[in-house]
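Can't attach files on this board, so I'm pasting raw text. These are the components:
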Amino acid sequence: DVQLVQSGADVKKPGESLKISCQGSGFTFGSFWIGWVRQRPGKGLEWMGSIFPGDSEATAYSPSFQGRVTFSADTSISTAFLQWHSLEASDTAIYYCARQRGGSDYYFDLWGRGTLVTVSS
Amino acid sequence: SSELTQDPAVSVALGQTVRITCQGDSLRKYYASWYQQKPGQAPTLVIYGKANRPSGIPDRFSGSGSGDTASLTITGAQADDEADYYCHSRDITGSHYVIFGGGTKVTVL
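---
Top answer:
Structure tokens for the assembled complex are below.
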């Protein structure tokens, strides 16, 4: 099956670090941009940025998230990662990864189920 | 960077037609894509490109656009269509940046 499988929910304290994952299957993972999308409780979708796993130097960060998170990928296990070095309560949200398509007009055609991250003291 | 503006909520009677709009400068240059999100679920792509539907999306969903506005139309709305709908496009700068609209809650009466 073509799918993105995300890591399970996590609960952290402010200041702690966290790395969540998104593993692709059924397609050539290294050939597609993978986007990360945040959804805070009761709020809309926010694009955080994207990474091209076939070239981990190829990344694009939303200005709203630049410096706060880090994207990485390992094509040998078809997995992309989203990492925080110091979480804040405001990072509490569901984080989705999604496969990006389109040569000129981008769209996300395949989504993971999301990872719920709760940051609370 | 660009912004995409959507009405927060619309309602439609069962079986009737509803149009959801999305406005932004980037839509003069790039097509919008549309996503349906039901409570507790991940978003699902319903329209992309000029007006393409992914496999499995009912043909009651259609997309269109003119100038700085894109529209998603549900013709013959069903109870199952009650959800949040988000538009999305590439940023007008042409970089890898993308943007989402704020979302429209569709209620089927």
